[in-house]
Amino acid sequence: MGTVTAGNNLDLSKWLETYKPKGQSVYKGAAKKYSYSKSASKAKVVANRSRGALGLMFGCDSRSVVGASDAQPKGDVDRKDQSGFKNSCPITVKWTRTHAGGQGKAIAVDSSGNSYVTGKMRDVAWRWNIWTTKYDPNGKTLWTKTKNSGSTTANLGGNGIDIDGGGNVYVSGTLNLGKDGVWAGKYDTNGKLLWSQATQINVHGFSYTDNETDLAVDKAGNFSVTTNKSFDIWTSKYDTKANLLWTQTYSGPSWSASYNSGKAVAVDKAGNSYVTGYASVYGSGAWKDWNIWTRKYDPNGKTLWTSTHNGNSPKPDKPDDIGYGIAVDNSNGNVYVVGTHNGAMHPSGYGGDIWLGKYDPNGKTLWTRSYAGSVNRSDEGRGVAVDKKRNVYVIGSTTVPDSLTPLKSNIWIRKYDSNGKTLCTQTYDSGSDDYGTGIAVDKAGDVYVTGTSDRSIFVRKYKQIEIK
Fold first, then answer.
1. At residue 239, does pLDDT exceed 50?
2. DSSP 3-state assignment of 313?
3. Which of 78, 87, 100, 154 falls between 20 and 30 A from 206, CA-CA?
4. 83 assigned to some structural domain
């Protein structure tokens, strides 16, 4: 990562006049000339932002983040993002944690406000490790655990995390077991590994993200895992001691080029399991289309319903309809799926739009929402959560203009009410590429997010401010 420093290379005022949100004046109090330096040392990376012109440009608060640790920027209220949306979420940043050399993938929060993150982290041998950390409500690291994946392959690491009623932590990921396989582990509240389960199922897919897994725990301590097995959607349910209860697979059409993958799983209070991902359908060209695929299983693994979504892209045979996240509202059984689709809002065919769908307990589509970024490039929804007021939170990433690259990715968060009305939008821009992948909400309404920022694991807690 480079640093923004005083210099004579970039006329910031002209840049802001070009990319400022419509109707927004440029703050003149900050220095007009900046340069981009790549000379920052790896041990100490400093990113400084003023609350004047640079605060507007990056749509985030004033801070200095030093190193890869528990540096804690001060809370602030974000104002504008680069695509012109008002960052209207009434929130403050409670704390932020970064860990260099890794990627945050999933996050969970318990009833006491402790948060848990899993992802992947390089070790000194440059191998990827399944990495799991617990933070207290104030962001203090309580423990960190790693599991060596046995490989330097980029598609191995932790992907799913959940907590049972006793405060035990369940993690899923992929390991090198001769063939890439699924790993699940259970830690107690103090980080002691109670058991681990490895299954060699030849996890692989069309791209490296198809090696991801996800995991969800029901109130009895049984857990469901999904991923892909030789391009089939693979879902298994285990009891609290990791004994297999059932396995279901979905193979798609009976032709050799069928690519299918389970990306996320959720469970409800009745023990039903919900899986989303993508499944192949027949296309008209050399490529075969991918549809967002969602299925509900009863507690014994019986299929209750299946729903698919096709983005109806005007550019044919673009395999960009993928479900990445799923959540269940336990107050009424409604299901929310988030992902990306190549819809009519994205006519260029470059990447897809963020997509959110709501289903009733029987699989009927109640409504859908899409978001296409300002530059019509790749926008992805990755995680979804529901709070006790039935509000829905989506996290992902959106592509925005950049003066240096010329495009980069920002973390994108949006809050909807239960009817699909947009309540507010929040973005985060470190100055480098940022990707949001996991989101959770605690009983107080505080929002926890994780992802990757400038090649570091990124974790943040927001406190929502109630407006009366």
1. yes
2. coil
3. 100
4. no
